[in-house]
């Protein structure tokens, strides 16, 4: 049987990566094998593209094309083969991130985004997406506490992050059956409980 495709989304610092292990655990409890991956990245070429796109300032369409170029490799070499083999794929971000960051954040026209989706992953959408929603000010605090220099997106102004958050929520309203919004405020344990509930609901 074909595996399920799960994605996690949210503004930087919302806390989504902290729950990948929990999602993997729940997949295994269900008797399936999981593959945990990320975007941009997930393949050798995708990781090289990631280094550039998270570092260099560029035209919004160039940025979108690089995200989708990395995504094409990821879909063809990792996601589709794993799903076909019955594995469940858990990806830290996918196309909803392009909608939120490139359309919401950078103002990329939605028709351009829709065209790229059609070219890059026709007929493929996640079976369930968990959107970690958090006040940008709290997310910024969490990011500050994390080690490492901030990348190009993490250096963006508050207004950019606010637009990204709103675009995510707008997409969640339009795809309410697929996108499960998780309140990411509170302790790790409180959020983890919400993840367990949302996962059970998604795959009931
Ligand atoms: N509920 C939480 N409360 C406090 N700190 C958190 C919480 N969730 C995550 N963190 C911390 O915030 C930082 C960002 O979390 P992370 O999962 O990497 O976010 P994201 O993947 O969404 O950018 C990490 O240092 C993480 O340990
Ligand atoms: C997948 C994707 C990510 N991004 C951005 C969002 C993030 O700021 C950045 C990398 O995501 P992420 O791996 O979540 O960053 P971190 O490891 O620092 O938590 O790329 C886009 O702008 N468009 C996309 O399509």
From TrEMBL:
Per UniProt, the enzyme's principal EC class comes to transferase
Q: Which GO terms describe its cellular component?
A: cytosol
Q: Which residues form the Thymidylate kinase-like domain?
A: 8-194
The answer to whether keyword Protein biosynthesis applies is no
Please name the InterPro entries in this protein's record: P-loop_NTPase, Thymidylate_kin-like_dom, Thymidylate_kinase
Q: Which residues bind ATP?
A: 10-17
- State the EC number(s): 2.7.4.9
Q: What family does this belong to? A: Belongs to the thymidylate kinase family.
Q: Which NCBIfam families match?
A: DTMP_kinase
Q: Quote the function comment for this protein.
A: Phosphorylation of dTMP to form dTDP in both de novo and salvage pathways of dTTP synthesis.
Protein name per its UniProtKB record: Thymidylate kinase
Instruction: Tell me which species this is from.
Output: Usitatibacter palustris
């Amino acid at each position: 049987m074909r595996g399920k495709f799960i994605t996690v989304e949210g503004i930087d610092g919302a806390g989504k990566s902290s729950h990948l292990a929990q999602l993997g655990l729940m997949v295994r409890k269900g008797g399936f094998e999981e593959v945990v991956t990320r975007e941009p990245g997930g393949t050798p070429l995708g990781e090289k593209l990631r280094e550039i796109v998270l570092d260099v300032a560029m035209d919004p369409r160039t940025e979108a094309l690089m995200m989708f170029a990395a995504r094409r490799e990821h879909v063809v070499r990792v996601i589709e083969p794993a799903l076909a083999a019955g594995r469940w794929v858990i990806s830290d971000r996918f196309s909803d991130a392009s909608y939120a960051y490139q359309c919401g954040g950078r103002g990329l026209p939605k028709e351009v985004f829709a065209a790229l989706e059609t070219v890059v992953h026709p007929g493929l959408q996640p079976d369930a997406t968990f959107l970690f929603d958090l006040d940008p000010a709290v997310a910024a605090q969490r990011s500050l506490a994390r080690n490492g220099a901030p990348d190009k997106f993490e250096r963006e102004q508050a207004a950019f992050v606010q637009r990204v958050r709103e675009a995510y929520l707008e997409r969640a309203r339009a795809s309410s059956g697929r996108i499960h919004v998780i309140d990411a405020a509170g302790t790790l344990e409180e959020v983890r409980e919400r993840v367990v509930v949302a996962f059970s609901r998604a795959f009931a």
